[in-house]
Amino acid sequence: MSNSPYIRIDPLGRPITVKFRDAVVASSENALSLKEGDYPAVVYIPRDDVYFEHLTRVDTTSHCPHKGDAVYFRLSAAGEAANEAAWSYETPKAEVGQIAGHVAFYPDHVTIEQG
What we know:
Layout: E1 7-11, E2 16-20, E3 23-28, E4 32-36, E5 42-46, E6 55-64, E7 68-77, E8 80-88, E9 102-105, E10 111-114
Antiparallel strand pairs: 1-4, 2-3, 2-10, 4-5, 5-9, 6-7, 7-8, 8-9
């Protein structure tokens, strides 16, 4: 669990598979669920469970006052691509340090299956 009163991080507690154009881009039994304020929960998947042959880092970055600086990835599979479809906080703030080494995906670009 995070040390931030605004953000709660817990183990997802079940397997998850992320697909882009029917290609599996991530599959994990060790994902985290991050709940930030009133926003929907976001699933963060360990980098070891992400298939980076489908991801290419892009130049886009953003800053969150609660989590730190994010980097973004383009997803590609089956001859199609989606820019800025995934992100990661490579060096997050200490309060949310559990998400270091994890990747999250925008649900409007991927299919997320939870078992």
